[in-house]
């Protein structure tokens, strides 16, 4: 079978290669899924981008047109594609681009993830846009613009430090995904996903009002299922009936275990019916 070729598009025109993330002095990141010739959650990605970048209508129309073109160009990709959009400043000028690669027929995500508690503390600034407005809200470490919180930044050094912790241990062959806490010990998110916790017949997700990335898949799910946002700690996670993670590329993925090496606590997590129901919802409505 012929390998599908990656797709590239930039604000300076289509090209065969794109600059490294390190060439951006500041920037935002959106990671999307393309399927059947479209990007199903594009409207939510564009809404978050518009909020975090304070993008005007002209820029939004350019980005939307490029994203829709990328979607059409990946229509023949059997398993869909992973689309990466970047916006920021490079060499002193505003710049944006897209890169799309085919998704694999089988992925480690298909088997669920093993959550590993990270010692790296998540800071509010890790999700505060550099393209700030004048409106401000109090965070645990100062003030941040109202529209600038919950953004996904291109500069991800804190997440990279946390990810380095995962390489220091063995995780029984399952996909390891770091679990991040804030300075007060509240669980906030995973490295690449938002967290979903099932308890007492209800879905809960961590309070993201002052810390963490507000993911588009979480936002979509909250519009189709009842999900409460609460302060959650490690005991809440360890005592959950079911755990899952979600993001805009992989949808909903069951958590099959959780480990906290620093305090020697762990628990296997069987995939449950509520998680399966969310997965079915995504499959029916999105892809």
TrEMBL record:
Keywords in alphabetical order: Aminotransferase, Transferase
GO biological process, one term: carboxylic acid biosynthetic process
Annotated Pfam families: Aminotran_4
Bias (Polar residues) ranges: 1-18
Region (Disordered) location: 1-21
InterPro entries documented for this protein: Aminotrans_IV, Aminotransferase-like, BCAT-like_C, BCAT-like_N, Class-IV_PLP-Dep_Aminotrnsfr
Gene Ontology molecular function: any one: transaminase activity
PANTHER family in alphabetical order: AMINO-ACID AMINOTRANSFERASE (PTHR42743), P-LOOP CONTAINING NUCLEOSIDE TRIPHOSPHATE HYDROLASE PROTEIN (PTHR42743:SF13)
Similarity annotation: Belongs to the class-IV pyridoxal-phosphate-dependent aminotransferase family.
Name used for this protein in its record: Aminotransferase class IV
Organism from which the protein derives: Microbulbifer pacificus
Taxonomic classification: Bacteria, Pseudomonadati, Pseudomonadota, Gammaproteobacteria, Cellvibrionales
């Amino acid at each position: 079978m012929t390998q599908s070729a990656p797709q590239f598009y930039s604000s300076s025109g289509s090209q065969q290669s794109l600059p490294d993330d390190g060439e951006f002095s500041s920037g935002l990141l959106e990671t999307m899924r393309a399927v059947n010739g479209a990007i199903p959650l594009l409207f939510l990605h564009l809404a978050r981008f518009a909020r975090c970048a304070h993008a005007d209508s002209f820029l939004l129309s350019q980005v939307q047109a490029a994203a829709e073109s990328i979607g059409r160009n990946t229509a023949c990709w059997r398993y869909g594609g992973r689309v990466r959009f970047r916006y920021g400043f490079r060499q002193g000028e505003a710049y944006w681009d897209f890169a799309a690669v085919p998704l694999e027929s089988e992925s480690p995500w298909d088997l669920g993830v093993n959550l590993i508690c990270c010692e790296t503390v998540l800071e509010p600034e890790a999700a505060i846009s550099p393209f700030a407005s004048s409106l401000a809200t109090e965070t645990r470490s100062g003030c941040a613009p109202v529209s600038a919180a919950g953004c996904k930044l291109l500069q991800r050094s804190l997440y990279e430090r946390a990810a380095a912790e995962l390489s220091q241990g063995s995780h029984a062959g399952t996909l390891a995904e770091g679990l991040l806490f804030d300075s007060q010990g509240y669980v906030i998110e995973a490295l690449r996903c938002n967290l979903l916790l099932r308890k007492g017949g209800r879905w809960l997700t961590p309070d993201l009002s002052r810390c963490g990335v507000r993911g588009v898949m979480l936002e979509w799910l909250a519009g189709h299922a009842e999900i409460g946002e609460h302060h959650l700690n490690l005991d809440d996670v360890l005592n959950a009936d079911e755990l899952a993670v979600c993001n805009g590329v992989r949808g909903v993925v069951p958590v099959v275990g959780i480990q906290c090496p620093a305090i020697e606590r762990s628990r296997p997590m069987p995939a449950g019916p509520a998680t399966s129901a969310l997965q079915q919802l995504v499959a029916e409505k999105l892809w």
